[in-house]
Amino acid sequence: MKLFSPSKLTRTYISALSLIALLTLATFFAMHQVISTQSDSALLVNISGSQRWLSQKAALLSVELVYSSNTSDRKQIREQLSETIAQLQSNHQTLIEDSTHIIPSHCLSPQMQEMYFSPPVNMHTRLNRYLSEALALAQDPEHLLTPNNSHLIYLLQESGNILESLDQIVSLHQKESEAKVHQLRLVEITSGLVILITLAFLGLYIFRPLANTLLMERFQLENANQELSFLSSVDGLTGIANRRHFDQFLNQLWLLATHNREPIALILCDIDFFKAYNDTYGHLQGDECLKEVAASLKGSLKRQGDFIARYGGEEFVVVLPNTTVEGAVIVAETLRVSVENLEIPHRLSSVTPKVTISLGIAVGHANLANSPTPLIEAADKALYQAKQNGRNCFRLAEA
């Protein structure tokens, strides 16, 4: 057996250690990139998802502006509509332009470039037109604020198409994020295998401590990734599912219900006069109110498959798999009563001097030809009717 000289053996170990150091640095860099990519991608998806809610809010405010008969209310609605338009524009610029302040090294992929700037979606032009029409409506004089207003008609006609395109963009952001993370994980796994092979040739008695350290840090990273994945699907304030998790859950349930031919019930819940509550009791107390209402709604759901999420602001959404109209009505009333029984004081409520909720119910059957969007819109319209009919009640969407 040929023996290595001490000097050659030293050079061999130094070379091997240098290789291990370089591979270890590469592995840690890949791990860091996985976390960074997931975080940045989650932020992109959240910003893109918020565009959907903001576009709905702009359409709703536009309708309220036209149909409001109170001059003071119209002034407030104009301000809210202008703020919503500004936020939509700001988010849009963040998504389509490189941003070093919010999302480091963010740039659009070719597929996303095509979504935003090429037919048939051409989201950049369509959204700018949508915002231009909404801004024009917000600035129209009082005598032009009629149901026949051309700006309002365009907004109502385009709202559904905008929402569908925004859903496609959110989905594409998610797919690109998963692809990036998959590539980085391949780099991570490859580097780890090379390290293990090199360690086997050098002897366990030298590199065992290093191997144990790497395995421990890898375990910690996986835990961190799992925690990050969990946090990205949970609303930080209320502890229930967030809007992103709701979208994923509903899409998955929609596909399952398509095969099983089972009905899906969706209930939108909105805390009555919550802005007045915040103005009266302060935002910290408002946060506590949201937490209590969320816990009460969640505790009122008895079946394991029932799902609740924070839809946005003071709105919550409940999804009831395989539930008929009769069952959905019973659950809705249970939710309403549970919040009312919390006895949270609300002296500015015109319904009753305590916190209450209004609910909109929609029940439908999933099919591959349609998305869940019409079901959500139906529940939203029913919620609006509940508010118009005195609040602290529920309304069922028309079949």
Automatic annotation (TrEMBL):
Membrane disposition: Multi-pass membrane protein
Domain GGDEF: 262-399
SMART domains noted in UniProt: GGDEF
Entry's localization field: Membrane
Segments passing through the bilayer: 189-207
UniProt keyword Transmembrane helix present: yes
Pfam families: GGDEF, PilJ
UniProt GO molecular function: diguanylate cyclase activity
Source domain of life: Bacteria
Keywords for this protein: Membrane, Transmembrane, Transmembrane helix
Gene Ontology cellular component terms for the protein in this record: plasma membrane
GO biological process, one term: cell adhesion involved in single-species biofilm formation
NCBIfam families: GGDEF
Protein name: Diguanylate cyclase (GGDEF) domain-containing protein
Annotated organism of origin: Desulfosporosinus meridiei (strain ATCC BAA-275 / DSM 13257 / KCTC 12902 / NCIMB 13706 / S10)
